[in-house]
Design goal:
The protein is mainly alpha-helical and 180 residues long. It is built from three helices and three strands, in the order βββααα. It folds into two domains: 71 residues, Herpes Virus-1 (2-Layer Sandwich), CATH 3.30.40; 70 residues. The structure holds zinc ion (ZN) (2 copies). GO terms for molecular function: SUMO transferase activity; zinc ion binding.
Length: 180
């Protein structure tokens, strides 16, 4: 087992990495160096917490699986991995939420644009209807004027000329507005 920086004697603070000696894991979850093991009253009492000891094991391959887990570097690696995973997934989630919000916003704008266009189409349609009615009444006026003819010719000519002008204006406006 490779000595990790944090492993130290809980009594004299000697670090396992710096000291060429054996270390022991105690059943009370304290750690002692070989020297301080001499203060356990023949392995019965922990000098750190004063609890009686059920057992102690030399740090290394003779430890139980459960004890080894406590010294494994795995939890640190797992934590770092979890942290990176968490950051990555958080970023991904944030990105997703942002794009959903953006899409929702542009959908709202599209809806507004659509109703605006509908309004404009309706307005244009009304203008077109008005012009068509105007043209019809002008045509009717012209027809009546032409068919009446006779003595009031000058007045009728003036009236007709004016109406023809208005009629052509109406026609060109209608042509602009006509959907075909
Ligand atoms: Zn010690
Ligand atoms: Zn102890």
């Amino acid at each position: 087992m490779s000595a990790q920086q944090w492993i130290h004697c809980n009594l004299c603070n000697a670090q396992m990495a710096n000291k060429d000696t054996k270390f022991y894991h105690l059943s009370c979850l304290d750690v002692l160096c070989r020297t301080c093991m001499g203060k356990t009253n023949r392995g019965t009492t922990c000098p750190v917490c004063n609890n009686s000891l059920r057992h102690f094991t030399e740090l290394g391959s003779s430890m139980s699986r459960k004890e080894k887990m406590l010294y494994h570097s795995f939890p640190v690696g797992l934590y770092q991995m979890s942290y990176q995973t968490l950051l990555f997934q958080h970023k991904q989630r944030k990105r997703l939420v942002e794009s959903i919000l953006k899409t929702r916003e542009s959908l709202k704008r599209l809806d507004e644009l659509e109703s605006e266009i509908k309004n404009q189409v309706a307005q244009t349609q009304r203008k077109y209807e008005n012009l068509r009615n105007h043209r019809r009444s002008l045509q009717e006026n012209m027809r009546q004027t032409v068919s009446s003819g006779g003595g009031e010719r000058n007045i009728g000519d003036d009236f007709a000329a004016k109406d023809v002008h208005a009629y052509s204006v109406g026609l060109s406006a209608e042509r602009e507005l006509s959907p075909t």
